[in-house]
Design brief:
The complex is a heterodimer of chains A (about 230) and B (about 475).
Chain A: E1 5-9, H1 13-25, E2 29-33, H2 36-46, E3 50-54, H3 61-72, E4 77-81, H4 86-94, E5 99-102, H5 107-118, E6 129-131, E7 135-138, E8 143-146, E9 149-151, H6 155-166, E10 172-173, H7 174-181, H8 190-204, E11 214-217, E12 221-224
Parallel strand pairs in A: 1-2, 1-3, 3-4, 4-5
Antiparallel strand pairs in A: 6-7, 7-8, 8-9, 10-12, 11-12
Helix pairs in contact in A: 2-3, 6-8
Chain B: H1 2-25, H2 29-46, H3 49-67, H4 79-125, H5 132-147, E1 151-156, E2 161-164, H6 174-180, E3 187-189, E4 194-201, E5 204-212, H7 218-280, H8 285-315, E6 323-326, H9 328-338, E7 348-351, E8 359-362, H10 363-379, E9 387-394, E10 397-403, H11 411-414, H12 437-447, E11 452-457, E12 461-470
Parallel strand pairs in B: 7-9
Antiparallel strand pairs in B: 1-2, 1-5, 3-4, 4-5, 6-8, 8-12, 9-10, 10-12, 11-12
Helix pairs in contact in B: 1-2, 1-3, 2-3, 2-4, 3-4, 4-5, 5-7, 7-8, 8-12, 9-10, 10-12
The chains are: A alpha/beta (about 230), B alpha+beta (about 475).
């Protein structure tokens, strides 16, 4: 029984080979695409459960491909890239990626990220809705309105916000937040978390540099503040 | 003068011919007077006032003697004679003045047309080159051809250079040209046959020029000076643009080359690392050790590739910083998280004031410096010994420091440890790494315009410091 169908998009044949061998060994079904264009053709035919997308490819490239995928589907996308700067990560997340793994990576790390991305969010418990003067969140319908406009959060950003709201008024540590939203294998990526928090702030805060809702607690983590 | 007497003779001949014709045809006095008037009109229209006056006197005399009674005698008693004389004279003066004015206008227009044609010819003959120097050299040669001068000279102030069409141009020496570049207006010295003009553009002096041998009018010289000023400026703009473009292209190329180098090394490493870590998960005991070595060395190769590319980027001045306010706590906690494995069993003592303002820095690169300091502390101090990390505001700067309880660094080595590939004498053969870590840290700090240094008491450990600007902007809560 397959643990899920994964589309591997990379222009390097050796990487596709090793990914296929490894992922099949872990009970995943694997389909391959050589370029972003190939991937966009393959997706409707194969309906993969998850996409591993190389950032640096000839043709339309990873970011553009990711945007095109997002325009049509909510399939989790993990970007794989040799670049590890903040700028590249933010660009990938902005393009709609769920996760970002820097090449070269250990396979356990990648498998953990794949498991986390495939894990469906469990809405049991937690709040149903949050409402204040300039922010409305409906956790049932996954709708967010900030300053009178609908904002679109990626699934990971949404989970992050849900966890923080569920623990509103209390600081949530980096580790706790990472494990709650991404999975038990996470915990040492505060930098990673920061990128997503910044995305959430950009979408819901009036001034992301001086956040009102999602505030940083130095050395500890983050806290959702309910306005008076 | 010769031409004038010829014209006078021709005028007289015309009057004589008309008189002769009138006599031959036996016309009456009125017809004779009218025909002579026509002759005077013709002369004044064609020639100048002098010829017209001579012709009118001749006509009056001829008319009086041959057509007015008493025939054969010059008498001006009869009022008819006065009328005829005054009519001839008035016609002569008026017509000749009108025609002279018209001719002068035509001559002026012609001269103007010719000068504009020459200016245009000069513009046409100047090729638009991407170099001010080439443009000037071309100008001194072209202006001589187009304006028919014997020589031309140019002084170009921005580079303090002189250009001359040939040795004849030495009539005007360098000093004269230098002096001319300081004055306001063009001057033409007809005696020496020299025209001098400053060359300016929008009040800025570009130098001066001289035309030698039959120089054009002062106005024309000014026009030439304006023209060449614009042409030089255009050449200069083109030159600047092509320099900037060339510099930009080489920068883009270098940057792309470094990026593709990093990519090309990391791609095969990705396959190796993924394959070996996959095998590690299910390897039997004997293979485990070997696979672990492959894995570790793949990591080491990856670090090495990253450091080489980064060092190359720093040395090429291609470090692209994106400065923003960064809380110091995040720089430190980020480095500690990345080093969580080697930090096991090491007490970390943090001393960071809660009210420390954020640093104005590139988060990735500044974090890398902190990480490098901590790695260094771990590498050169005994296991289990503490690592002290501190940050403070000192003289408007944020100073971050990482201290260890290692053997310390001797004084003569302190300045050299930030050099590429330098290793402390004691550690030359027993420490892993590329020897580029601190050199990269230094490159990053210096790219921020800040300082990096080390303080050490041999035997007591070492403290590495670097400074960052405190962010003036908002304090991220």
């Amino acid at each position: 029984m397959s643990a899920g169908k994964i589309l591997v998009v990379d222009d390097d044949p050796q990487i596709r080979r090793v990914m296929k061998a490894t992922l099949v060994g872990h009970s995943y079904e694997v389909v391959e695409a050589r370029t972003g264009e190939d991937a966009l053709e393959t997706i409707p035919k194969e309906s993969p459960n998850l996409i591993l997308l190389d950032m640096n490819m000839p043709g339309i490239g990873g970011l553009e491909t990711c945007r095109a995928i997002r325009a049509g589907a909510d399939t989790p996308v993990i970007i794989l890239s040799v670049r590890n700067t903040e700028k590249d990560k933010v660009a990938a997340l902005d393009a709609g990626a769920d996760d970002y793994v820097t090449k070269p990576f250990g396979i356990e790390e990648l498998l953990a990220r794949i498991r986390a991305a495939l894990r469906r969010s469990s809405p049991e418990g937690g709040p149903h809705a949050f409402q204040s003067a300039d922010l409305e969140i409906d956790f049932e319908t996954r709708r967010v309105r900030a300053h009178g406009a609908d904002v679109r959060l990626t699934p990971k950003e949404f989970e992050l916000l849900r966890y923080l709201v569920a623990h509103a008024g209390k600081p949530v540590t980096h580790r706790e937040l990472l494990q709650a939203v991404w999975g038990p294998d996470y915990g040492d990526e505060p930098e990673y978390l920061r990128v997503f928090i910044n995305q959430v702030r950009k979408k819901i805060e009036a001034n992301p540099a001086k956040p009102k809702y999602v505030v940083t607690i130095p050395w500890v983590g983050y806290q959702f503040v309910v306005p008076e | 003068m010769h031409a004038k007497s010829l014209r006078v003779a021709a005028s007289l001949a015309l009057v004589a011919a008309v008189v002769a014709a009138d006599l031959g045809l036996r016309v009456n006095a009125t017809t004779a007077a009218l025909s002579l008037l026509l002759a005077v009109l013709g002369v004044s229209a064609q020639f100048g006032l002098t010829e017209a006056l001579v012709a009118s006197f001749a006509a009056m005399v001829g008319f009086n003697v041959l057509f007015l009674p008493p025939i054969g005698k010059l008498t001006i008693q009869d009022p008819q004679n006065w009328v005829a004389l005054v009519a001839f004279l008035l016609t002569a003066v008026t017509a000749s003045q009108l025609s002279a004015r018209a001719r002068r206008r035509a001559a002026e227009a012609e001269a103007g047309r010719l000068e504009i044609e020459r200016l245009y010819a000069l513009v046409q003959s100047m090729h638009l080159t991407g170099s001010a120097r080439k443009t000037i050299r071309e100008f001194v040669n072209r202006v001589v051809q187009v304006f028919g001068c014997t020589a031309a000279a140019f002084y170009y102030a921005p580079t303090d250079e002189f250009a001359r069409s040939g040795p004849e141009s030495q009539v005007v020496n360098d000093h004269e040209l230098l002096a001319e570049s300081e004055v306001e207006n063009a001057s033409v010295d007809l005696l020496r046959g020299v025209a001098l003009s400053p060359v300016r553009l929008g009040g800025r002096s570009l130098g001066s020029m001289a035309l030698i041998g039959s120089p054009p009018s002062g106005q024309m010289v000014q026009a030439i000076a304006n023209l060449i000023a614009i042409t030089i400026e255009k050449a200069r703009a083109l030159e600047d643009a092509s320099h900037a473009e060339a510099a930009r292209q080489s920068e883009v190329l270098k940057s792309a080359l470094l990026d593709s180098l990093a990519h090309d090394i990391k791609t095969p490493l990705t396959s190796i690392k993924a394959a070996v870590t996959s095998l590690l998960g299910s390897a039997p005991g004997g293979d485990l050790e070997l696979l672990t070595i492959i894995n570790e060395e793949a990591d080491r190769l990856n670090c090495l590739a990253a450091e080489v590319v980064e060092m190359a980027r720093i040395e090429a001045g291609k470090l692209h910083l994106e400065k923003q306010p960064v809380p110091v706590s995040e720089l430190i906690s980020g480095a500690l998280a990345e080093l969580s494995v080697p930090l096991k069993g090491r007490p970390v003592k943090l001393r960071v004031p809660a009210d420390l303002p954020p640093a104005e820095a590139d988060r990735d690169f500044a974090g890398q410096v902190v990480k490098q300091f901590v790695e260094n502390a771990l590498k050169y101090s005994p296991e289990g010994s503490p690592v002290n990390i501190a940050a403070e505001l000192k003289g408007g700067k944020i100073v971050l420091s990482v201290g260890d309880r290692g053997p310390g660094i001797e004084e003569h080595e302190r300045s050299r440890i930030f050099d590429k590939f330098y290793r402390g004498r004691r550690h030359r053969f027993d420490t892993k790494g590329t020897g580029m870590g601190l050199a990269i840290a230094k490159g990053i700090v210096e790219a921020h315009g800040e300082k990096i240094w080390v303080e050490s008491e041999p035997g007591q450990g070492a403290v590495f410091y670097f400074s960052l600007a405190a962010s003036a902007g908002g304090h991220e809560s």
